[in-house]
């Protein structure tokens, strides 16, 4: 909120701060940023001229056939999702502080939570977080609080961006140990896990499908963690849960995911949707908000904020988290998406992902010099090894054929210099995958 100040008030504030002028507050900013003439344009544009200019710029965009996954997926979003989400009462709805004024948005959050709990087979879901990486960070911190231990075990097959974000959530707390678990043939090495599990382990993290696309032995990992008194965090892809066992089936304490797969389009950095679920016994350590259903004094149904860990509330020093936001609009998109598809539609979409990925692997493996890196079961991503480093090859094929062949893994795993992570979702046709294979065969 902007509040105008008189000259006297401004002088009083500057004196209190200890400076003589407003300009003195800015003296540490390099002059080139304060005095730059950006020369955006010599003259202003009329609406017609601006429309023409932006149309010319938009025409330069090219449609790229995208085979990159790694946590953000090219999936089909039914047109009804965007149409319904853009209704004014959803786009302009303010964050639900006052339940009496926000029954509509509270109900959509409640429906979202219910659908996520059903999909994950978990007891509780919060109202959503920023993204899947931050959801993992919150889950790891919750585990450390619950059992007061200092060691966090994670697999080397974990999404590297999730790992960085999780460590950031712990700040400079050197008291915590982050120990990696080796992988064998793309899966968490159980022997390595057993060797590092001890009475100081707060939690074990496992991702399935993991960063390589491989499905992990989640029930065994969960059992081993619990045998040492540690908690178990499952990281997953919500779309895969339509055809593989959900986290609740193997006794996960926390289950988190990136919800972009559920009807959210690909964008440059989001906004995305952090899915966070847990057992009921851990509900008091759950960050963010929880919407519940109740009745008022007249017996009418109503929706309320049951729990919320907000930093501006009283006793905020005792809050489980200082998370201040939920992705309500993104959660609404996921809710509409899951409602439109239903259980059978979700299953069909997941099966289409699995079928396309296997067809793509078959076509690529038939090319001389290309081999599959790992042999485990996978969902819609897989790793292949090429006879040359894929970075320049990727740029060349993208420029000449408008095909992004996948994600080179050398940046994240230096020993995998010739490895490429390829993803094929339900948006790909046989012709698309044949084009990918043809482009690779031509350039190898």
Structural summary, described in words:
The chain is an alpha/beta fold and 444 residues long. It has two domains: 65-76 and 343-443, Aspartate Aminotransferase, domain 1 (Alpha-Beta Complex); 79-337, Aspartate Aminotransferase, domain 2 (3-Layer(aba) Sandwich). Helix content is 38%, strand content 16%. The protein contains 14 helices and 17 strands. It has helices at residues 7-17, 22-25, 31-34, 47-58, 79-85, 88-91, 103-120, 132-147, 160-169, 190-196, 218-227, 328-365, 390-401, 430-443; strands at 65-66, 124-125, 151-155, 177-181, 183-184, 187-188, 201-207, 231-236, 254-258, 274-278, 289-295, 301-308, 371-372, 381-385, 403-404, 407-408, 419-423. The strands form five sheets. The protein has a seven-stranded mixed beta sheet with strand order 2-10-9-8-7-3-4, with helices on both faces. Strands 13-14-17-16 form a four-stranded antiparallel beta sheet, with helices on one face. The protein has a two-stranded parallel ribbon with strand order 1-15. A hairpin with a 2-residue loop joins β5 and β6 (187-188). α5 (79-85) packs antiparallel against α12 (328-365) and α12 crosses α14. The longest helix is centred in the C-terminal third of the chain and has 38 residues, at 328-365. The mean pLDDT is 91.
């Amino acid at each position: 909120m902007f509040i105008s100040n008189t000259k006297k008030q401004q002088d009083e504030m500057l004196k209190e701060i200890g400076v003589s002028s407003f300009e003195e507050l800015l003296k540490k900013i390099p002059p080139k940023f304060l005095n730059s003439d950006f020369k955006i344009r010599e003259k202003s544009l009329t609406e017609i001229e601006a429309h023409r200019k932006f149309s010319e710029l938009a025409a330069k965009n090219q449609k790229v056939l995208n085979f990159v996954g790694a946590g953000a997926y090219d999936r089909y979003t039914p047109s009804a999702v965007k149409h319904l989400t853009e209704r004014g009462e959803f786009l302009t709805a303010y964050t639900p502080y006052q339940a009496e004024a926000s029954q509509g948005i509270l109900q959509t959050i409640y429906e979202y939570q219910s659908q996520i709990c059903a999909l994950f087979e978990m007891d509780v879901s919060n109202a959503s977080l920023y993204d899947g990486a931050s959801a993992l960070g919150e889950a790891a911190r919750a585990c450390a609080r619950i059992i007061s231990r200092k060691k966090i075990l994670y697999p080397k097959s974990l999404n590297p961006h999730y790992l960085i974000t999780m460590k950031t959530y712990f700040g400079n707390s050197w008291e915590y140990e982050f120990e990696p678990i080796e992988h064998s043939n793309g899966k968490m090495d159980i022997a390595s896990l057993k060797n590092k599990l001890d009475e100081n382990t707060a939690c074990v993290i496992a991702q399935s499908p993991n960063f390589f696309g491989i499905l992990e032995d989640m029930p065994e990992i969960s059992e081993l963690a619990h045998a040492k008194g540690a908690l178990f965090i499952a990281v997953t892809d919500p779309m895969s849960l339509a055809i593989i066992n959900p986290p609740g089936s193997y006794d996960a304490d926390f289950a988190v995911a990136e919800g972009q797969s559920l009807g959210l389009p690909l964008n440059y950095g989001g906004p995305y949707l952090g899915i966070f679920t847990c057992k009921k016994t851990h509900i008091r350590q759950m960050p963010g908000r929880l919407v519940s259903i109740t009745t008022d004094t007249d017996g009418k149904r109503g929706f309320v904020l049951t729990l919320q860990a907000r930093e501006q509330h009283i006793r905020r020093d005792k809050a489980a988290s200082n998370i201040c936001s939920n992705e309500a609009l993104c959660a609404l998109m996921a809710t509409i998406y899951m409602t439109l598809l239903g259980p059978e539609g979700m299953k069909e979409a997941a099966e289409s992902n699995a079928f396309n990925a296997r067809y793509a692997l078959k076509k690529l493996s038939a090319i001389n010099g290309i081999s599959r890196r790992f042999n485990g079961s996978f969902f819609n991503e897989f790793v292949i090894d090429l006879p040359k480093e894929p970075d320049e090859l990727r740029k060349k094929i993208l420029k000449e054929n408008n095909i992004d062949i996948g994600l080179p893994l050398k940046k994240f795993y230096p020993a995998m210099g010739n490895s490429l992570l390829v993803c094929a979702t339900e948006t790909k046709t046989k012709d698309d995958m044949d084009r990918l294979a043809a482009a690779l065969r031509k350039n190898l």
